[in-house]
Write a structure and sequence with these properties.
The chain is of the alpha+beta class. The protein has a domain of about 100 residues: Jelly Rolls, CATH 2.60.120. The protein contains three helices and eleven strands. It starts with about 25 loop residues before the first strand and ends in a 10-residue tail after the last strand. The relative contact order is 0.20.
């Protein structure tokens, strides 16, 4: 195993770290009260990865079963219980649990509990997921080809219960 080729070729390092205080307001709050914090975006990491904190209220549905063709997605549960679909079955993720979904892996998540939950979502490489988070509910309501095109543009391919292609 070897490290990737160097990308920084300077001799003395740079001052370029980015700090985000824990009390920073979330960038997105949905009508249901779910909050998404943009910790590290495609833009801020130069496309290396995207890291988001998702705080879900009690009984919050998440996305149906889907997969991505160009990005992996990882889940790290910070608090509460999160229902995580690993492609075969639903499992309950609790504080400290981690699920890695490689490119093409079927997955979904939701909060079935009566308590709030919080988790980290990591996308690699870092796709520009912010527009997806901000507009998916609106686009789903519009439906039709516009919604289908939106999903494809955001590398989100939903499947029906038997694993075949779905529309939302």
């Amino acid at each position: 195993m070897s490290y990737p080729e160097p990308r920084y070729l300077g001799e003395h390092g740079e001052i370029n770290a980015v700090f985000r205080p824990s009390d920073t307001e979330p960038e997105l709050t949905s009508p249901s009260g779910n909050r998404t914090h943009y910790l590290a975006t495609h833009a801020s990491t130069g496309g290396e990865f995207g890291l988001y904190r998702v705080d879900m209220g009690p009984k919050s549905p998440g996305p149906r079963t889907h997969f991505h063709r160009s990005i992996s997605e990882s889940f790290f549960v910070l608090s509460g219980e999160v229902g995580l679909y690993n492609g075969e079955r639903w499992i309950t993720g609790r504080q400290g649990d981690f699920l890695y979904v490689p490119v093409g892996g079927l997955h979904a998540f939701r909060n079935d509990s009566d308590d709030p939950t919080s988790m980290l979502l990591l996308f690699a490489p870092g796709a520009p997921r912010e527009e997806y988070f901000e507009k998916v509910a609106e686009m789903a309501q519009r439906g039709g080809q516009e919604f289908t095109d939106f999903l494809v543009r955001h590398d989100s391919f939903f499947v029906d219960e038997e694993g075949g292609p779905g529309t939302s």
